[in-house]
Write a structure and sequence with these properties.
Distance between the termini: 53 Å
Number of strands: 6
Shape: globular
Helix content: 55-70%
Number of domains: 2
Strand content: 5-15%
Strand order of the largest sheet: 4-5-3-1-2-6
Structural class: alpha/beta
């Protein structure tokens, strides 16, 4: 396989996968998280309840001409191409090998995380871009000793912080590199601290926004990431299982082994890759002892990870290592193909094994929202909807073309809806109460003074029922217990 690792073949391979991801972007309905972030982009701000603002800015920029699913997600595909270019450039500078550069790009693009995860637009998209760009700039500092690049690094660090709070891990990662190499002499200069200050200055609007909103976003993320749950190795096992899925099981185990071997090396190239990948993976692994960690949380660590794995397997002639690398690539590609084909064409007939498994299929979340929107439009004169979920509310706004203003019930999980204007003062009185059996939040009498019509909508995927929506039409109470958008 390594004979195929040329610049031309890599470009062709990446282009084919990009076209596939663009097709998925256009064909799949918005995931609930995507609809939520899309709604943010309609109300641009410097801060939001859940995350910093850059995901909203990315979506706003790509939806200037159209708000279709493809355009909502377009920045995700653009970022995958830009990050592929950064991987190529960095690998070439580190190892001066087309084979290693091409292999690293190929490996990154066959990650399931890239094949499907970089179709879905989330805060992981902008943070991956600015994290990767920061590593590249940091290496230019080490390679060229140009002091002005520290200023550029401060800007990209700040942009990463404006994308996702966990980008703060960049600072200790770079510090680890400096402490482990003779480049620690930079710590005796003003430049690293100036770079850190620039990054924090870029992040200052988010701090001010939080200070004006009772630090609500910081508090939410601290609780979400390090919540007071009991210690459990089971959650660590779940975290590891998630990492096996986002990269591919062979890739992940080879990468961890390569990292373990690389710890004893002191060449700057290996130290750079280890210090910008392993601490992030370990940090979330340790935090998962107490709080279940999402499989996507350390996603940005796999920028350096793919170069680490490829260099370990292909740098020296070893038939075993080359075979392992080929198996890793092929296994990840197969896993990615199965996941994405199933997401689009329901490839795996789960209903043959269990109706419960078919209904619980995570890819079902890419379906049913357009049908729900069409159903809700059949209720004339209904201007708002109350739901138990910020994600469901956002889907309703998107798939009814904002003809129905969605609201979330007060007793549900807090979200950005809590920050927006309450509809109880808008004069709207006729609305809908929409929920599923899984998130029932009380009788309609708690939300409407009177109910005039009730109905249900069952969502099917290839003839298999996946979920049912219950819809009540009524008139709003004078003081309903909900927040509006």
């Amino acid at each position: 396989m390594e004979k195929l690792l040329t610049r031309r073949n890599t470009i062709v391979f990446v282009c084919v996968l990009v076209l596939w991801r663009l097709y998925l972007s256009a064909a799949l309905q918005l995931h609930p998280d995507e609809a939520y972030y899309w709604l943010w982009s309609r109300y641009l701000d410097v801060g939001y309840f859940d995350h910093p603002p850059f995901v909203a800015y990315f979506i706003w920029l790509t939806t200037l001409l159209s708000k279709s699913e493809l355009w909502v997600r377009l920045s995700a595909t653009i970022v995958s191409v830009l990050v592929s270019g950064l991987i190529w450039q960095l690998a070439m500078q580190l190892y001066r090998s087309v084979k290693i550069a091409a292999g690293s790009v190929v490996l990154f693009n066959v990650y399931p995380q890239t094949m499907l995860g970089l179709v879905v637009i989330t805060p992981d998209i902008p943070v991956l871009l600015f994290w990767s760009l920061s590593i590249y700039i940091f290496w230019q500092i080490i390679r060229t000793q140009k002091t002005w690049l520290w200023l550029a690094l401060g800007v990209t660090f700040g942009l990463a912080l404006l994308s996702k709070y966990t980008a703060v891990l960049m600072a200790p990662c770079f510090l680890i590199y400096l402490l482990l190499t003779d480049d620690r002499r930079w710590l005796k200069t003003i430049y690293p601290y100036l770079s850190l200050g620039i990054g924090l200055l870029c992040f200052l609007p988010v701090v001010i926004w939080n200070s004006n909103h009772d630090w609500i976003s910081f508090a939410f993320q601290l609780k979400n990431g390090l919540g007071a749950q009991g210690y459990s190795l089971e959650k660590v096992a779940e975290y590891v299982g998630g990492q096996l899925l986002v990269t591919g099981p062979v890739v992940w185990f080879v990468g961890i082994y390569a990292a373990a071997v690389g710890i004893y090396r002191r060449d700057k190239e290996t130290v750079l890759l280890l210090s910008t990948a392993l601490p992030v993976i370990l940090f979330f692994g340790l935090s998962s002892l107490k709080k279940a960690a999402g499989p996507n949380w350390p996603a940005f660590a796999y920028f350096a990870f793919c170069i680490l794995v490829t260099q370990f397997c292909l740098a020296e002639y070893s038939r075993l290592r080359r075979t392992v690398w080929s198996v890793a690539v092929v296994s990840s590609l197969i896993l990615s193909a199965v996941v994405t084909l199933h997401a689009r064409f329901n490839l795996i007939p789960l209903e043959r094994y269990s109706k419960e498994m078919a209904a619980a299929d995570a890819t079902n979340w890419f379906y049913g929202w357009r049908e729900l929107g069409a159903e809700l439009k059949k209720y004339p004169g209904r201007e708002f909807a109350i739901t138990p979920s910020h994600q469901l509310s956002a889907e309703i706004v998107y798939y009814t073309d904002a003809n129905i203003v969605a609201q979330t019930a007060l007793i549900t999980r807090p979200s950005q809806f809590n920050m927006w204007r309450s509809e109880k003062d808008s004069g709207r009185t006729d609305g809908l109460y929409v929920w599923t059996a899984a998130d029932y939040i009380g009788p309609d009498g708690a939300y409407f003074a009177s109910a005039s019509r009730s109905n249900s909508l069952q969502i099917f995927r290839d003839g298999v029922p996946t979920r049912t929506y219950y819809i009540v039409s009524g008139q709003k109470d004078l003081t309903p217990p909900f927040h509006g958008s």
